[in-house]
Design a protein that fits this description.
The protein has 284 residues and is mainly α. It has one domain. It is 71% helix and 3% strand. The strands form 2 sheets. A two-stranded antiparallel ribbon has the order 1-2. It has a two-stranded antiparallel sheet with strand order 3-4. α5 runs parallel beside α7, α7 packs antiparallel against α10 and α8 runs parallel beside α10. The longest helix has 27 residues. The relative contact order is 0.13.
């Protein structure tokens, strides 16, 4: 198969641009710090089962200490492994997008906030629904990192595809996810259908705004966007696909129930707070 020389050179330049950006941006310190979370989860897993249960968040007898430790508690290997894989997947996706978008400070600030505050906050908010049960696991934190992906995705698109794409377009994938969750992950009621319709309408409204902006402003001049567009498409699939997987249609697994409330809070809060910060210009 023949290929024009110019096209091959442009593609190579795009690939080199990705590799070069990541090569000079990835820091061992970042990787080590981000690895502390799964390392803590693995360490806790090797504690005796009664000790692990004591570290889980008891909704009847909650304590500030267990609000911190519960995130790292897993009682079975079947629960630990998927959560570890999900953490590596979603955090590495966000980290790479942040580096390619030039948003290291945003990612670092959000990651530190999530690790220190999201776990205790989510378990504390669970007290709004009192029940004789315990809560534990990384899934709430994982969903928080997933909530950052729409913002990083749009930042990446603005930097490498078109400057007409702005932070105000980040709610598009967020509302697409909410629409999917309302239709697929919870029983269909008037309330959930209403949420799905409202979220779908908002996604369309923001989408129309994006299409209008792209019509009025062409892609970044003088820049080959082929390779960046490929990365963008993959990132869109990951940004929308992972959160939907976090809201399974059947939440009961092996005698336990997946806490969809924690997932939703983690995803929603972790999107809204940095989105407001970006719109306010705190990370410019």
């Amino acid at each position: 198969m023949d290929q024009p020389v110019g096209m091959g050179m442009a593609k190579a330049a795009g690939e080199d641009g990705v590799r070069a950006t990541l090569a000079r941006s990835i820091r061992l310190r970042d990787v080590l710090l981000l690895s502390l979370v799964p390392a803590a989860a693995v360490a806790v897993f090797f504690l005796p089962a009664p000790v692990r249960r004591s570290l889980a968040f008891n909704y009847v007898e909650p304590t500030p200490f267990t609000a911190v430790t519960a995130t790292y508690v897993h009682l079975t290997l079947e629960h630990l492994v998927p959560n570890l894989l999900a953490y590596v997947f979603v955090v590495s996706t966000g980290y790479v997008l942040a580096l390619l978008a030039g948003r290291r400070r945003l990612f670092g600030t959000a990651a530190l906030t999530y690790v220190l505050a999201v776990g205790p906050l989510l378990w504390a908010l669970n007290l709004a629904v009192p029940r004789p049960a315990i809560g534990f696991g990384l899934s709430g934190l994982n969903m928080a990192f997933a909530g950052l992906l729409p913002i990083l995705l749009i930042a990446f698109a603005r930097r490498h595809l078109s400057h007409s794409i702005e932070a105000r377009h980040a709610p598009i994938p967020f509302f697409v996810v909410l629409t999917g969750v309302a239709l697929l992950a919870v029983p269909l009621t008037k309330v959930t259908v209403g949420i799905a319709v409202a979220s779908g309408v908002l996604a369309v409204v923001y989408g129309v705004s994006l299409v209008t902006a792209l019509r009025n402003d062409p892609p970044n001049a003088g820049q080959d966007t082929g390779k960046w567009l490929e990365i963008f498409v993959v990132a869109v699939v990951l940004t929308i696909g992972y959160p939907l997987l976090g809201f399974p249609a059947e939440p009961a697994v092996g005698g336990a129930v997946i806490n969809l409330y924690v997932h939703f809070l983690g995803y929603g809060l972790a999107f809204m707070v940095p989105y407001i910060g970006v719109e306010a210009g705190l990370f410019d």
